[in-house]
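Reminder to self: tokens first, then the designed residues, so the page reads top to bottom the way the pipeline ran.
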């Protein structure tokens, strides 16, 4: 508790006492989504993060350019760069994950004071997955009253199953891919799931989307691309860069890249289908 609570409080007092607060451009606190939804075994950590958020509203500090960003699980950095640890924490916390590039973008927005204008200085990241998660798999915090609008969004978008439609005997894309015997059938499943995802995000009929066209023709901005990237990570177990999505020549080309990077397929299957050769060729 002390480094986060007393450390920030001492900085705030020092800035006020030296009359530097009027010249302060920004003061950014990186907190955790756990402070907003709670997390078993982390009450001191959650409490100190809540303190960071409270600073934004506290009368004595509200006039200062404080911004608190509640981050979800971070991929590829520090303790959670280990995939098994990351999956465990992601499952426990029930949020989507971000990477270092996402954090840099968030900090840039905080420096530009965009978060002061749009979310009153308190930005909570990683909860958008509620809209694309089946009702039976929603995280523990989804019924919290203060988050009820997220559940309503899920209902409004008609999502009671993943985008690849899980109802009756239908199965998830990951399960379907594991049952495939050929590369062509696996790619077809990924193409269908991607088109349905893009259709859902853009609120355009599937029939209007041409899988053979470059991804750029859909006019995806970086935020939409991040949502698609997070969905690919969650549903298809493949970690892609935003540019890899935005610069794809077509949905089938993107599907092939996803299969090359996906953890769904075993190394033996990738070798059999020639995916490992293509991956080495790209490197």
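Designed residues (283 positions):
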């Amino acid at each position: 508790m002390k480094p986060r609570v007393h450390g920030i409080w001492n900085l705030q007092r020092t800035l006020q006492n030296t009359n530097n607060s009027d010249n302060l451009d920004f003061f950014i606190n990186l907190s955790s989504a756990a402070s907003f939804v709670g997390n078993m075994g982390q009450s001191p950590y959650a409490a100190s993060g809540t303190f960071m958020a409270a600073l934004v509203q506290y009368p004595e500090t509200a006039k200062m350019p404080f911004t608190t960003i509640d981050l979800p699980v971070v991929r590829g950095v520090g303790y959670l760069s280990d995939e098994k640890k990351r999956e465990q924490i992601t499952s426990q916390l029930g949020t989507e994950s971000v990477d270092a590039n996402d954090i840099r973008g968030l900090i840039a927005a905080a420096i530009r004071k965009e978060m002061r204008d749009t979310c009153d200085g308190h930005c909570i990241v990683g909860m958008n997955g509620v809209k694309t998660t089946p009702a039976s798999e929603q995280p523990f915090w989804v019924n919290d009253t203060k988050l009820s609008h997220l559940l309503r969004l899920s209902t409004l978008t008609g999502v009671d199953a993943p985008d690849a439609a899980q109802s009756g005997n239908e199965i998830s894309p990951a399960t379907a891919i594991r049952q495939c015997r050929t590369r062509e059938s696996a790619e077809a499943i990924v193409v269908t799931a991607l088109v349905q995802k893009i259709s859902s995000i853009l609120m355009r009929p599937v029939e209007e989307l041409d899988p053979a066209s470059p991804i750029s023709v859909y006019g995806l901005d970086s935020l939409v691309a991040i949502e698609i990237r997070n969905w690919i990570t969650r549903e298809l177990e493949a970690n892609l860069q935003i540019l890899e999505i935005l610069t794809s020549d077509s949905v089938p080309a993107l599907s092939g890249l996803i299969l090359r990077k996906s953890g769904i397929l075993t190394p033996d299957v990738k070798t059999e289908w020639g995916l490992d050769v293509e991956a080495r060729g790209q490197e």
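Residues 173-282 form a domain with the Non-ribosomal Peptide Synthetase Peptidyl Carrier Protein; Chain A fold (CATH 1.10.1200.10).
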